[in-house]
Amino acid sequence: MNSSYWNWYYHKPLSRIKNSRQLHVWVMTDTHFKVDVDSNPSHPDAVKADKYFYKAHSHMRNFIDLVNEVNDFQPDLVLHLGDIVDRYDADFDYFNRIWNTIAPNIRKERICGNHEVGANRDDEFLYKKFTEVQSREEVAGSKFNQSFVVANGHIRLKVILAETAYDENGRRDTNGPGYFREEAFDWIEYELNENRDTDLVLLATHHGPTLHFVDEQKQRLKNVIDYSCYRDPNLVIYDISGHNHPPSIQYQDYYFPSMPSYHLPAGVGAVGKYTILTFNTRKEMDLEERILQYPYKW
Q1: N or C: which end of the chain has fewer CB within 10 A?
Q2: At residue 244, does pLDDT exceed 60?
Q3: By the 8 A CB rule, do 156 and 145 touch?
Q4: CA 122 to chain centre
Q5: Which string of DSSP letters, residue by residue, matches 243-272?
Q6: Radius of gyration of the chain (CA)
Q7: 0.85 exceeded by pTM
């Protein structure tokens, strides 16, 4: 991780110089949109535990401004790692309206968090809210599971988005530590070994497989990752996740050296943030966290 990781506090506007030797992924997670407390710190639900809803929803402005910055910078990919909303359908609709203003030439993808699942929300409800998944086939039991390649010049990045909002029996769950469905392990192994044309891979989930998974699931994933890297010593895998709302990027070494893992800060924290990943031709990943604030100060 180079020194730009520490430069988030400058938060001045970005400008992109087209460079075929870098690939940029902008990542947000745990925005927990809650429209009814927008810009209202006196609301009784404005702060709960580590979720500062009113800051996140002055972050309504911040998020619109972030989308404008995305459209100006033109990253190669935009990801949201789940917990888009805190609870309510209206918040989901509001988020979707902003999300859909990202320029159509910029690829954007989302995965489901435990707060999207909520109480008694089935696949039909979720697929209606995540309109982009409606036409997809289920992969390893979920339409949210997918893999694809993004490329810029000399760099090709395979992205594996894997859903974790399940309990140990493969049922959708809003409160548990997060699980892969049984069939997801075989699917991830297939994607890492048989369905790959690049040595650079990003695994993205909502629950972090290091901090949140039970030991049995952590070990099973470690077996898959270690086996894949043993088969191909040139393979480089990175893991990113949300869910636990760390104040800054948090590194975990459970899967090291096969897969460095990073838990990313939440958009709804006391200081809401998003993260920029930059990949280079040496297959290195640089992480830079940036504050969601409006107006920008520098």
Answers
A1: C
A2: yes
A3: no
A4: 22
A5: SS--SS-EEE-TTTTT--EEEPPPTTSTT-
A6: 18
A7: yes
pLDDT at 48: 82
The residue with greater pLDDT, 298 or 87, is 87
Please give the CATH number for the structural domain made up of 24-291. 3.60.21.10
- Domain borders along the chain are 24-291
Estimate to the nearest angstrom the gap between the alpha carbon of 26 and the chain centroid.
9
Provide the 10 A C-beta neighbour count for residue 250: 17
The stretches of 74-105 forming alpha helices (DSSP H) are 89-99
Instruction: Summarize pLDDT for 71-100 with one digit per residue, the tens.
Output: 989 999 999 999 988 876 778 888 888 899
Contacts of 25 (CB under 8 A, 6+ apart): 75, 76, 77, 78, 79, 150, 157, 202, 276, 277, 278, 279
CA dist., res. 192 & res. 198, Å (int): 10
DSSP 166: B
- Residue 276: CB atoms within 10 A of its CB come to 18
DSSP 3-state of 108 = strand
Using the CB atoms, write b or e for 107-118: b if 16+ within 10 Å. Answer: ebbbbbbbbbbb
Q: Above 70 in pLDDT, residue 259?
A: yes
- Report the alpha-carbon distance of residue 87 to residue 83 in Å, rounded: 9
Residue 280 backbone phi and psi in degrees, to 5: -120, 180
> Residues 206, 241: contact at Cβ < 8 Å?
yes
Tell me the average pLDDT across 34-41.
Answer: 77
Cα distances from 250 to residues 92, 110, 247, 283, in angstroms, run 28, 21, 8, 20
- Cα(233)–Cα(82) distance, integer angstroms: 32
Q: With contact defined as beta carbons under 8 Å apart, do 153 and 196 qualify?
A: no
271 or 260, higher pLDDT? 260
Report in angstroms the alpha-carbon separations of 133 from 46, 86, 186, 200, 292.
32, 20, 22, 25, 28
